Structures are given as C-alpha cells and as structure tokens.
Amino acid sequence: MAAAIVRPVLFVLVRRRWRGHEHMPAEGGFVTAVNHISYLDPLTYGHFQYSSGRPPRLLAKASLFRVPFVGMMLRRTGQIPVHRGTADAATALRAAVDAVNRGECVAVYPEGTVTRDPEMWPMAAKTGAARIALTTGAPVIPVAQWGAHRIVPPYARGGRGDRRVRLIPRQPVHVVAGPAVDLSRHAGKPLTPDVLREATEDIMRAITVLLAEIRDEEPPAAPRTVSRTAHEPAR
After folding, report:
1. Residue of 215, 170, 166 lying closest to 16 (CA atoms)
2. Could you say which of 10, 168, 184, 189 is the most buried, measured as most Cβ atoms within 10 Å of its Cβ?
C-alpha cells in the first residue's frame, strides 16, 4: 500500500537516474549504506531499493514514529526506530542484526543525519553499518544519491529564496549502487573501536567514490567534521 501511494507521486516529481541494481544480492541478508542529503531521501532511495526487488528496512529517528500518519506508515512497513542517546539505543542495532539474519535488506544512513558539509559531501560517519555487517557477516552495498536536495533543500528555513520544497522544474535524482565493500581484512577480528572505525572509513570511501562519479567532481581528501551552525548547503 505504501508503494502504491508513494511511487506515483515520485514518478511525477522525479526524473529517475538509477544504476546498480545488479549489485543487490538476489537472496540473503545485506546492508545498504547510503549518503544523506535531504529529508526526501528515504522516499527517493526507498523507491530505488523497492524497485530492485529487495525492499529496505530503514533505520529511522525514533521521533519520526511519533509523527501522525508518518509514524503509522513506518511501523506498518517494518522500519526500525533509533533512540539516540538513550538506554534503548542498542535496541535498533539488535533489530537490524535480526533482520539481516532473517535475510532482509537493512538500510543505514551512516552519517546519522542530513549532511552539513558545505558542498554536501558525506561527513564523518557513525559505526552502525560496519557493526551490523561485521556482526552478521553480511555484505555492505554502498549507495550514493544526488538531486533530492534540489527538491527538498536541507535546513531550508522557508520564505522567498529559501523555500522548503521546490517542485518546479522537475529534477533528476541519481541513485547509484556499487559493488559490495571489501571488509575482508576486518573479518573475524574483535569489534574494537579501531576496527569499527576503519571498516566505517572503507564504507564511506566507497560511497564517496560513487558520489564523485555522479557529480563529476573531486571530493575532499577526507570527510569533514561540520558543526550544526556551519552548514550552508550547495544548490
């Protein structure tokens, strides 16, 4: 039902530029790691992933589950709430591991929020995607997306020149999946902070390479750590 509601709207709003469905495993659990550029991402990426034949279980902020209708749809479609900074934070990790072990696709935004990088490159990431993958032994498929930020700009305040939604002209949205990230050098090791950090860097490097190809631009040498007040998004 969610697909029947959302997909026709996205067909109208978005010019799809999709590649990489062949990298999605045909069976068995896996993790997708996706860069985050807009509040529209869960719909544009979700549409891409649904069309691969392997619909995603998204890790989403717990606060979204309290939004009328949105929360109901998240619960009914089996998405996983993340209770940040609370004693329940580990619950999302356990639920994600269980889902992967059941053979499902679990989608993670490793940055944990919409990027605050001034040029909208991926920021330094959290280690959740790496932890799920190394715990389960499942592959991690990197996914890069670009274009949704032009429809729903990140951190827009509204008003003239800074609209929260821009429906015209119809925008191209690129979503590209790449081959599974090679995490073999970390396999079998204790999940120490150093191992998780290095595996996370491998994942983010793969995402950034895909994004650089989409944008035809040179990314920063290393992910930036950006404060909340420093963000001024690229257009």
Report:
1. 170
2. 10
Contact indicator for 211, 122 with CB cutoff of 8 Å = yes
CA nearest to 108, candidates 83, 82, 74, 136: 82
Contacts of 80 (CB under 8 A, 6+ apart): 57, 58, 59, 60, 92, 95, 96, 99, 106
CA distance 217 to 220: 10
As given in the structure block, the two tokens for residue 84 are 């940040």
Asked if 62 contacts 110 with a C-beta cutoff of 8 angstroms, the reply is no
pTM of the shown model: 0.85
Give CA–CA dist 27/220, Å, rounded. Answer: 35
Instruction: Tell me the C-alpha distance between 92 and 47, whole Å.
Output: 23
Instruction: Please determine, for residue 137, whether its predicted confidence score (pLDDT) is greater than 90.
Output: yes
Tokens of 195: 């191992």
Phi then psi for residue 41, to 5 deg, are -50, -50
